[in-house]
Amino acid sequence: MPRFTSTAAVIGILYAGVALLPALAADGGAIPDFSSNNTGWDGGGENDFTSPKSGPGPVTSDPAEPYISNFTARRTGQAPNWRIADLTNPILKPWVVDALRQANDDARNGKAMFTREARCWPQGVPAMLLNPILLFFVQTPKEVWILQQADHRVRRVYLDQPHTANPKPSWFGESVGHYEGGDTLVVDTIGMNDKTFVDSYRTPHTTQLHVVERFKLIDGGKTLEVDFTVDDPGAFNMPWSASKRWKRVKRTLEEETCAENNATFFKYEVEPMPQADKPDF
User: Fold this and answer.
1) Bridge partners of 236?
2) Would residue 142 count as lying in a domain?
3) Using alpha carbons only, what angle is made at residue 94 by residues 88 and 95, rounded to the nearest 5 degrees?
4) Residue 123 lies inside a defined structural domain of this protein
5) pLDDT tens digits, residue range 117-173?
6) Going along the chain, which residue ranges are E strands?
7) How many domains does the chain have?
8) Phi-psi region for residue 39, left (φ > 0), alpha (ψ -120 to 50) or beta?
9) Is residue 239 part of a domain?
10) Residues 6+ apart with CB under 8 A from 83
11) Does a structural domain hold residue 66?
């Protein structure tokens, strides 16, 4: 089954203002409305997951070297820095610890620790949830589309079919879902490639990655919260959980395009994309 759809089609649906919501969930109850009335979801600028109240959680900042984001730096006057991962998290397989140790050393030595999206690559799941730019939803009786304003990336969640037997690995994988309880969308994703990180600390994963997300409206519909669980026996010693929140804002999808490695800002090993000396129009 295809994972992507054209940006033009998505924008057309968003601006048409057509009521696409199905009348009932699979269990006969009401469904949450994530999309009508020019609704966008603002991630607030920060791109870290929130740890669960109990149980295994995501990789976080080393307490001895706390991360200071650009947003925090502007608010507090502290100097921003690159993330240094806490290597003591018990979820991590030894090879993942080694990968993060190398990333930590690179960060300490001044190497720019770019995110996948900084090079215009899809972030995969669950890292797509970390993008601080707006999220949008399109809801139809058979599908839910989760869109990032950044480069108009699209995830398609199928509501009317199970997972295929052997999905071909892709950036966002294969997502199937259903509604629960009038306020929650449950999304089950498998079939992802191993070219992405699961977070902003450059934590790798394998193609065994399995993510279950529960998108829920809280605060009277003013806030969208996702609680999710990650299971990857190739990279993690146990399943772990985390969450993320967005505030509802009245916005429409704006054009924001990206050219992969267009200027090689971070001077990694790949060559920059060729660019014309002058415009041809």
Assistant:
1) 92
2) yes
3) 125
4) yes
5) 666 778 899 999 987 778 999 999 999 999 988 777 899 999 989 999 999 999 999
6) 39-42, 135-139, 143-148, 154-158, 174-180, 184-190, 210-218, 223-231, 240-250
7) 1
8) beta
9) yes
10) 61, 67, 107, 113, 200, 201, 202
11) no
Range of the domain at 169: 7-47+117-250
- The amino acid occupying position 220 is G
Burial of 148 (0-12, 13-18, 19+ CB in 10 A): buried
Both tokens of 173, joined, read 């994988």
Digit-coded pLDDT (tens) for 214-258: 999 999 999 999 999 999 999 999 999 999 999 999 988 777 777
CA gap 174, 45 in Å, rounded: 28
Pairing of strands 143-148, 154-158: antiparallel
- What is each CA distance from 45 to 67, 93, 174, 198, 272, in whole angstroms? 14, 30, 28, 18, 28
Q: Give the predicted TM-score (pTM) of the model.
A: 0.83
**Two structure tokens written together for 13:** 């649906």
The pLDDT mean for the chain works out to 84
